[in-house]
Structures
1.
Amino acid sequence: MESNFTKESVINALYLLRIGTNPPADKYLHSFQKSKEVWRIAEELLSHQPSYPLHILTFAAMSLAKKTKNDFRRLSMPKRWYLRDRFTKHLLNAAMMPESNSLIVQLGICLSALGLGSPNLEEEMCVFVQQLSEQPEHIMALLEVLRILPEEAMSFDPEQHVESLESVRLALRSQSSNIFNTVEGFLERRDLPDGVLLKCLAVLASWTRTFGGGRLCIGHVGVLLGRKLSGLPFISDGHLTGSSVPKLRGQAGSNAKLLPHIREPVRNSLPADKMGSCENPGATSHHRAIATYSRQVPTDGC
């Protein structure tokens, strides 16, 4: 019965699974994730101060992600707005925790599930990007969410959420150039950690793999990536040479699969004046990218 689900019993079941195989504990947690108590207990776990261990927080976020996907159509608009604000707050907190990427990923899935089912997807994306585009730690979390969003769109079930999957993909596709500009702006900042390079690559790969049309933008941003890596030679027009690509892949290490659109050499890159949606590549402030979103936000808010 749902009355048997408590914060303490969930923590205890997770502890039992940490120390060994425990079918009753596993069954209990699966039942918990299907219960209405997920909303309350997972929120209590994520909000507790001092914070619980990361595996407990990650399980709470994972449970909320499953519940949000399964129950989306039963959520009222005020409930969706409340969850969006709570998920965002938890994401901001997680961004400040060390080694918290697993938690950030689950919270990103939570936010993606809410956003993909929203009738105001594009507007909410604008607000969200602006909200997380200042502090370096928040930007790193934002990049993880931006990577997840297209992947979630591909597994999105329109029968549970909205009438047309195609409308969701069109809404996201229309934001592709803004995402490219935003990532480019982040790469120009000097206060971000070294890991920003691979996260930016992951975002670009995710969006172009899902929606296409971004090959030229990736070639353009490849120049900025090259500037983040020491000793990469460039051909005369500023694009990466064939000899620099292996070095770029070497920096990526096991994540070299994130570079599917960087070829050896980049023969299809075009000059900056023919880059289409990647306009004004020479601008140096990340606020140019943020301004792109600012111009789209309605004056009366979302």
2.
Amino acid sequence: MKFSLVSSLIFIAATSVLASPLAASADGLTHDELLARDLVSLHTQDTGNGTSLEYFGVPDSTTKRWTPTPTLERRKSTTCSAYPTPSCDNKDNEAQNELCSSLVDNLYAQATIAIDQSWRQICFKGEGGDKCCTAWSTAVPWLRQGDLAANANTIMQTCTNNGVSGKMYGVRLQSTCLNQCVSSGHGCNNSAG
């Protein structure tokens, strides 16, 4: 009887790990891709001259769905790098360099402004409606806009083949390990590679 109970507990633990949000969903999307698909505009800040900062995130019910468990946080923190290298892509989601420069400038200028935990992306929207966005994969307590600036700047400086599009895996912001990307896209293209 005791063996049966132990075996059942091991089976439940193993299947819980297999069903974690780090694995692909039934429709083949990763955790980051599912999150990006659910982003909605939550706030817009006029920056003058027909430009704005737009803040995207997940609705409250979705935020609860994507809140990482302590087990997932521990697993992700073991792969966090002090000096991650950007991974650049050419997936038709490159942002204009001048828009990304304005995004980074605004992140530095508003460095002390707190980021709501439901937000997952900040975009600088130019006069013509084009955007440069930085997105991050995980809610971070006490995150400030300035915390995103250095990585966004590194991606912008590194990934400029035909505009800006790239991602940094295993970035540590505050005490949280996550992925951060920069592109023109709603949620960035969060697939690896």
